[in-house]
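Repro:
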Amino acid sequence: MKAMPDSQSIDVVILCGGKGTRLQPVISDRPKPMAEMKDRPFLDILIDYLCSYGFRRYVLCVGYMKESIKEYFTRESRSEKIIFSDEETLLGTGGALKNGELLIHSDPFLVLNGDSFCPLDYRDFLSYYFSKGADVSIALDGKSVRKDYGVVTINDKARITSFSEKTDKKDEYVNAGVYIFNQTIFSLIPHNKVISLENDLFPYIIDRKVFGYVTKNTFIDIGTPEGYEKAAEFINKFVDEGLNG
C-alpha cells in the first residue's frame, strides 16, 4: 500500500462555477457557493472546515459570476493558498476539473462540489482511499433517502458496481459530492468539452478501481430554495458547535 501523504500536500479542488438556476428565485445576485450563512459565504465555511483537517492548497474552479468569488478570496491575506481556475464557458463538473488540470499538482487530489457539504472525517477518507489502492473514492451518504438523487450501488468489498436512478435495493447510497482522484483521471476527460462527472465520467470508469466510502453523516445541498433553507439551519448549528476536524 502506498504511504498516505500529509493532508497539507494534497490539493483540494472545489467546483463552484455552475449557474445555480434552481436557486436563483432566492439568490440571484451571487453564485451559489457565495450564499450567506452565519454572515459568511457558504464557500468560506466549507474551506474553514477543510482547513481544520490540515488542507492548505485550494483550486477553485470558477465560472458563473466568478468575480464575486475571486474578489472575496483575494481581498485579505489568508493562511491557506487559493488559486482560481477560470472557465470562459461553463463546462460542467468534469469539464471544469479538466480545465484546472495544470493547476492541480498533487497525486491524489480531493474534489468537492461547492454547493454541498458533508461533515466527513477527511483523514479517515484519505486513509480509506490508500488502503483500497483506489483510482477513485467517492463519499456516499448512507443515511439519507432522497428521491431526487441518483444512487450508487456497491458490492461487499465496497467497490462501486453501478450508478443509476433510485430503485429499492438495500445496497444503494447517495453520492455526497466528495471525491478522491489520482492524476490518471485527466486522461479520460476530453479538453474543452461539457462533461458531467456524475452522468458522463463515472459510469464510464466503472471497471476501474472505484470504491465507495460510506459515511453515517448526511450531506446537505444548497442548490434549491428548500435545500438552502435546511442547509442554513444545519450550518448555523454546526458553526455554533465549532468547526474542527
